[in-house]
Structure formats: C-alpha cells, structure tokens
Amino acid sequence: MGKIAFIGAGNMARAMIFGLIESGVSAADIIGTTASEASAQALHDATGIATGTDNQHAVASAETVILAVKPQKMRDVCQALQRVSGLENKLFISVAAGITSDSMAHWLGNPTLAIIRSMPNTPAQIQLGAIGAYANANTSAEQRDTAHRVLSSMGLAVWVEAEAQIDAVTALSGSGAAYVYLFCELMQNAGEQLGLSADISAQLAAQTFKGAGAMLVDSQITAKQLRINVTSPNGTTEQALKVFANRQLDAIVLEAMSAANQRSQQLAAELGSQE
Length: 275
Prior knowledge:
Elements: E1 4-7, H1 11-22, E2 30-33, H2 37-47, E3 50-52, H3 55-60, E4 64-67, H4 74-81, E5 91-94, H5 101-108, E6 114-119, E7 129-135, H6 141-152, E8 155-159, H7 165-174, H8 176-193, H9 198-219, H10 223-230, H11 236-246, H12 249-271
Helix pairs in contact: 4-5, 7-12, 8-9
C-alpha cells in the first residue's frame, strides 16, 4: 500500500486512521496534517502517526493521499498541492461531499490523475460505515484495490460505475443514518405517549434498531423477507404496517431521498466550479 497521507484530520479521517491501524497498517506508514501545531500534536497523541501542518511535505512523501478537508476548502488545498512533483504517480481519495473527480483533477493541475471519490457516513467513526466509491478512468486496478482496503477499514465499501451515482449513495447511506435516528426518535416518543418511561422507551427503540440491523447484515435474508417473517396475519405488526401503507410511507421516503439526491447534485455545481 505504501505511505499514506491524510490531508485534514476530522472525525472521518481519524476513523480511517484507526481502522487502517487495526487492519494491520503500521502507524509509521501514515502521516496526517492539520491546520495548527496543537491539533497536529493531538492527532499524534491519539493515533501515534507522524503529524504536521505542511500539506505539500506530507503529499510528497506518500503514494496514497486522502483528501479529508471540508468541501469548501478543497479548491485551495488542491491548488496548493500543484507544486508537489510526481502527483501523476499518486492515488487521491476524497471523502468530501459534493466535489467531483474532474474538479479535483482541475484544481490539482493534471487531468490524468488517479482519483477516487467516496461517500462515507457517520457510523464509519466506529468502523461500521457504509461507503460508496467511484474510481475515475485513470485509476489502475492496483490503485482501486488500495482504495478498497483504505475505505473498507471504516466498514462496508461498495463501488459504483458512474460518478453521478454518488449522489444516490449520498441520499441513501450518506444521509441515511439521520433517517434511522429520526425514526428511532419517533418510535421512542410514541412509546412514551403509550405509557412507557422515557428511559425504557429509549432503550427498547435503540435495541430494536441494533437487533434488526444485525439481522439484516448477518442473516443474508432480504429486508422484505424479514418484514414478512415478523408480520403475522391480522396481528399487531400488520396493523401498524397498514397505517404506514395508507399514509404512503414509501412515497414519503422516495420524496425525501430524491430531495437529498438533488441537493447533492446542487452542491457539486456550487462547490465544484472549475473557474
């Protein structure tokens, strides 16, 4: 895999660093940069990797570069890296929302660069993320394998063949944790209104999501079939599901995810201008 440089060290970058180290990558092969000496020292203390504030130095020493800065800062960071020699031999992986691979290549000053655009979600911070990724045409099979190992350190990593599909990934898993939290919150509130204490309702709702999620992942049974299995004819579950159907929950979910998908497209246009 070679040396890895993390440019920016927020929660997502830290999750990747911890995941890589747990997967067997030596801390000695990772360098991270932050905006200040104090935050660089804090990152070193937390992870044991080499840290600093000089992005150009870090990139020059690495074969794989993780661009983990905020989307609004991506243009300035990339343009400053143009002065680093040998960029054409490096793999760039972005975890920033709304920035296309073409925009990054333009800002880095070279249209032939190997660039991976990825969309992790917040559970990646505990190595349970769902990550969608796209590799541009300049990425070799070996580089894609490297990127898969890096991204898999945060959880499940899947690949899409068209970059536009990253917007759908954003709408599904990128924003999806918030949908789960909202539904859990609503179930908890309903439990309280039905007479349970706030503490008991919160525990039961959270554990229900944990258990149902584990069954989805571990049982290899589809969500549809698991729903059918738990729904007895004329039983309590069926009555609840009928309310969801009558209120057209499926249409609500599609409308909500379509809005997220559209906003992801808008962000790419707003933040990725190549001027």
